[in-house]
Amino acid sequence: xxxxxxxxxxxxxxxxxKEILDNAGYVNDAAESVKEAMEKLxxxxxxxxxxxxxxxxxxxxxxxxEFKKISPNSKIIMITAFASIENAVRAIKNGASEYIxxxxxxxxxxxxxxxxxxxxxxxxxxxxxxxxxTLSSLSNSIRREIIRMFQTNPKIRMMETARKLxxxxxxxxxxxxxxxxxxxxxxxxxxxxxxxxxEGQKVLECLNILDNYLSEQ
Length: 217
Prior knowledge:
The chain is an alpha/beta fold. It folds into 2 domains: 3-117, Response regulator (Rossmann fold, 3-Layer(aba) Sandwich), CATH 3.40.50.2300; 131-215, Winged helix-like DNA-binding domain superfamily/Winged helix DNA-binding domain (Arc Repressor Mutant, subunit A, Orthogonal Bundle). It has helices spanning 11-23, 34-43, 60-70, 85-93, 106-129, 141-149, 158-165, 170-182, 198-215, and strands at 3-7, 27-31, 48-52, 75-80, 98-101, 186-188, 194-196. The longest helix is centred in the middle third of the chain and has 24 residues, at 106-129. The chain is globular and about 50 Å long.
């Protein structure tokens, strides 16, 4: 059973989150500070960490690196009241898998948790198949869906991508496109449309092979 750690200094907010996770069937625990969270991570294994961006003492961004040292396999979702591409990129570079902005819908949070847990399984399969490296940027299910769009479309635009993914938060779509671009899987033409690079074409082929493999398991 998947286990989740909530790291937030707002006790009432944390209790609400715990109730949501309880009802969703997740085993969970909470820490009111980064220090307390680190102590729990040293003695327990958590699949997902819900980390508040603004924490007393060591803030969420700086805590990411410490958490990853102690529990490298845990997936971290950064919860922030300040949604921006800059904050999202900082969080990802420091070890977060995803971010979600307050206020958020319960369904959106539970879906995100489900997605990052899927990442854990996906990464495990990648290691089994010895496909680390570029494919690691595709552990996120949203980015895999973006890549799959190129099977039928040579070019895609940001708004079209958001519509097909059914994601209202365009900041999130831009963020995932940026990750794929930085991984040299996507590039943009003069009209700012996105295309697969030569490396991206290879990744799409590998993704198809991996999808076929996983469907047979």
